[in-house]
Amino acid sequence: MPGVSPPSLDDDRAMVHAALSGQPGAFAALVHAHQRLVWLLVQRLVRDPEDARELGQEAFMRVSQRLHQFRFESSLRTWIGRIATSVALRHLERQRLPTVEIDEALPLPAADDTAAEVDARQQHERLRDAIDALAPVPRLVVTLFYLEELPVAEVAALTGLPDNTVKSHLARSRARLRQHLETSR
Questions:
Q1: Regarding predicted confidence, which is higher, 102 or 156?
Q2: Do 122 and 89 share a domain, yes or no?
Q3: What is the pLDDT of residues 165-174, one digit of tens each?
């Protein structure tokens, strides 16, 4: 993610071994190192902050229960991300309700805002609305690739989707976003 370098494999090993050996504070450090990722993944899928908090906790409970099964075949970040994505997708399957985000009201433009600033803010709002209109998985893929600037391979690893499926989601989503933005002018 921008500005944050993921822990190295050696850091992952040390963190996992410390947590598995019951070292005080080790699992809390693991949670702290990965909580932003889990929150991002879950929040982008379920959209409700309260559900996202609960599902984030559930994801870390599963990490705790299954940490002994982690085999270092991928990064710890990827493994935890897949667990979080799986927990959120299962929640959506159980709910089978449309996902709707209730945004906080956007600040009204100040009297001294330039026309360009107002236009940029409106364009940002239209883009956010277009992304929010995507289905949960494409929305997550778009967020990870464009907003979090992750490579396709890492998006695929985090979501459990094949690389080509991620690329297909991106292509279809770009077309939908373009269409949404053109019709919302």
A1: 156
A2: no
A3: 999 999 999 9
